[in-house]
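Please produce the structure of this protein holding zinc ion.
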Amino acid sequence: MKAAYIDGHGGNEVVHVGERPLPERTHGDVRLRLHAATLNRVDLYMRDSGAGITHRLPQIMGVDGAGVVDAVADDETQLAPGQRVLLHPGVACGRCEFCLRGDDVLCTRYQILGEHIDGTFAQYVSVPARNVVPLPGGWSFAEGAALGVNHLTAWRMLTTQAQLKAWETVLIFGIGGGVSLAGLQIAKALGARTLVTSRHAGKLERARALGADHGIDSSREDVAKAALAATGGRGVDVVLENVGEAAWPHALKSLVRGGRLVTCGATSGDQPGADLRRLFIRQLKVLGSTMGTVAELHQLLAFCQRHDVRPVIEQSFALDDVHAALSRLESSEQFGKIALTID
Ligand code: ZN
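Below is the modeled complex.
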């Protein structure tokens, strides 16, 4: 089968499009014929170094994906060949303390497609049946693929972790990136007031068109001061950020007393000052989050269908053009997801 894979670490020169063995469907697995995947920051991380993530080279890239069911076990009762589906990219052991209590995202033997094992920039992938869910009617494969990482991550951050309420205000850093944009869509649909930041006036404009209540241009404005001004000096209830070091001091200063900061990603660095005095005097809560459980993916799908929330796909590339797609992601110019279509 055709796939995009890395055979080393570096730049686009270690990324190849070529033949890889067709994955065997093992016991309990479903094999999918993939039709789309979308790019995530972690694809660049795996290409560049993959440091700290156990994996073997060559490895097929790609974390999320959607397509049709290709092959199932004889006794499979819920999925049938030809069915349009999307996948949850985290393969959990099902046996550890965390899996047993339903927190499969904390699994001690968690394997994520495209990180620990072969991924989705390929014609076929084989995953456990529990990781496969039906694609909503009318959705494109790219929209379905995007749901499995960015929207799932934002969903867990805002609902399970930060417990965002309809009457609250949330500040979202770096609008345009996949998780931030998903966070905006979900927060709006939940009924919350949304403040968003970007260094690009054009992205703020597009965020307003998607329903953002207030845009903060972080290239010209002090984000914390602007967030306080926009809330009558009170501060926001929740901050969602995946920028890390560059956003951290502004994020903490933007919060109301007792406010919650939920973080993932740390793209600008992961060692900001802790500002402990502010943390304890104002009794702030800092919450880490990554990905989401299979149960949360089912909740998210129901929520998206009820509120007509769909991932924003900015641009699609053919699998053969994976280098151009990766370069586009690296430029950070995009607003929404960059998709790969797989013929
Ligand atoms: Zn486990």
